[in-house]
Every structure is written in C-alpha cells, then in structure tokens.
Specification:
By secondary structure, this protein is mainly β. Helices cover 0% and strands 48% of the residues. It contains no helices and eleven strands. Strands 2, 4, 5, 6, 9, 10 and 11 form a seven-stranded mixed β-sheet that branches. A hairpin with a 4-residue loop joins strand 7 and strand 8. The protein starts with a strand and ends with a strand.
Length: 124
Amino acid sequence: QLQLVESGGGLVQAGGSLRLSCAASGFTLERYAIGWFRQAPGKEREGVSCISSSDGSTYYANSVNGRFTISRDNNKNTVYLQMNSLKPEDTAVYYCATDLSGTECDKMNEYDYWGQGTQVTVSS
C-alpha cells in the first residue's frame, strides 16, 4: 500500500522551530521529487518546498525562503521540513506529496499522492 505519513506538527510560539517528517511506505521515496504544501483556513493550498531526486536540488516559496529547509534521509525513506523563525502566518495544515513519476520539482501542481497532513499552529 502506497502511503505518505506526516508528523511533527504542533503548537509553537512565534520565533520557534518545528521539524516535520514525511515517511513513505510502499515505495522508495528517494526515486521521486517530494513536495511540502500547506493550506490555511480560507486560503488556497500553497507549495512551500520541494526536493528533487536527481541531484537534491530544492525549491522554496518566497514566503519561507531562508527560514525553512527541506532534506531527505533515504535510509529512513523520509523527507523532512525544518521550520525555523516561525510566524503566525505559517499556521496551516502541512502536507507532503508526490506524483510517483517525476524526479524534478517542476510539476508540483500535478502531485496526486498525498499524506493526511499535520497541523502547525504558531501563536503570536
């Protein structure tokens, strides 16, 4: 069974840090580009970050660039999102996703395998 499971969310004060995990089962995560997305209430889903499988190149949305870092541990079949200097506007449900075909981060809008999400709440 193909599955992505996010964890690591929680409640943190502004300026704090969290590390989200995206663990894959049923497939080898290192073969594909993996993206992190978020959706806040009443807002559209936003692509936050992505890591390619070809050369490990990364993408960050302007809103998180310099504060978030994406990485992967192929031995653990897991992708991480380290989030530092968190702001109240980072509050959202965070999802990881992939299309199980591409190695680059150029088709994030077409990802169709999603985890269940993990809630991140940043208090001011």
